[in-house]
Amino acid sequence: MAASTAFAPNTPAHTVDAFHRGRFWLVQPRQGHRAGMDAMMLAAAVPSTFSGRLADFGAGAGAAALAVLSRCPEARAVLVERSAEMAAFAAATLAHPGNAHLGDRASVLTADVTLTGRARAETGLADNSFNFVIMNPPFNATEDRATPDALRREAHVTEDGLFERWIRSAAAVVKPRGGLAVIARPEQLVAVLDAVEGRFGDAEMLCVHPRPDAAAIRIVVRAVLGARGKLSIRPPLTLHGPSGNEPTERTEMINNGLASLFGD
After folding, report:
1. How far apart are CA 231 and CA 105, in angstroms?
2. Is residue 136 situated within a structural domain?
3. Nearest to 52 by CA among 169, 134, 130, 167
4. What CATH number is given to the structural domain containing 30?
5. C-beta separation of 28 from 5 below 8 A
6. Residue 202 · residue 229 · CB < 8 Å
7. Would you list the DSSP string of 36-48?
8. Which residues sit opposite 134 in a β-bridge?
9. Is 238 helix (H, G, I), strand (E, B) or coil?
10. Into how many domains does the chain fold?
11. CA torsion angle 66 70 72 76 (round to 10)
């Protein structure tokens, strides 16, 4: 479901889209970086019983954070976004009348999560201030700059060492035994696990496949700050059946905030 709505003068074209079967709405650019299944899978990595304070690194217009709030009624969220333009979309999302039931549990913070120490704290990302961090870092290799859209390029083009910097910051702002969830491409698994090592443990990895006979297109890694357990590989998520484009029942449940990705 999509509709156009008044936003602000000189704002790029946008849509207002329903998620979780209308339980929350997203104000996002009509073209470029738009939220979809990746955000829903990332949000679903948070346990359904979660009741703490969550930071969404690279929140964009706020889809993943609001999906957590929609499913976890006691959770609170800070939508952390470096791009001032996308942060404005996130603020518009929180101000949308259809999100009034969630707005008092969420806020937007314009900040660069790659900053360190005092510089990071001065932006509002204080150490040991969150119970969980979710992140959807840029996916594409630096040399892949085919898209002319600046917002889309910033959201999708990764930089060398990006996972190390983002996960380092997550380890700083999360409280002891706090959680981390990352969605990435399969080829980025080594970089994710290298950044997690020595900081987070009890890691769980889940692969996402478009169909039962197809290679994975995404990985989701979840871990606990300061834990010592080894990596475990969970049963995969298959988005569609062997033929056609209809989502599987589990995909539908996750996409609509009716189930968690890891079964908790």
Report:
1. 33
2. yes
3. 130
4. 3.40.50.150
5. no
6. yes
7. -HHHHHHHHTS-T
8. 56, 181
9. strand
10. 1
11. 40
Distance from C-alpha of 172 to C-alpha of 252, rounded to nearest angstrom: 34
Domain interval for residue 57: 2-181
Mean pLDDT in residue range 74-97: 95
The token pair that represents 213 in the structure block: 């006979």
Of 173, 36, 200, nearest to 111 (Cα)? 173
Give the β-pairing of 200-209 and 174-184: unpaired
Q: Using CA atoms, how far apart are residues 171 and 179, in angstroms rounded to an integer?
A: 9
Helices (DSSP H) in the chain: which residue ranges? 37-44, 63-71, 84-95, 100-103, 117-122, 150-156, 162-173, 189-196, 249-255
- Please write the tens of the pLDDT for every residue from 183-215: 999 999 999 999 999 999 999 999 999 999 999
Q: Answer yes or no: pTM beyond 0.70.
A: yes
Q: Is residue 219 part of a domain?
A: no
User: One-letter amino acid identity for 12?
Assistant: P
The rounded distance, in Å, linking the Cα atoms of 197 and 194 is 5
Distance of alpha carbon 151 from alpha carbon 251, whole angstroms: 28
- 248 burial type by CB count under 10 A (0-12 exposed, 13-18 middle, 19+ buried): middle
In a domain, 227, yes or no: no
For residue 72, being part of any structural domain is answered with yes
Type of residue numbered 167: I
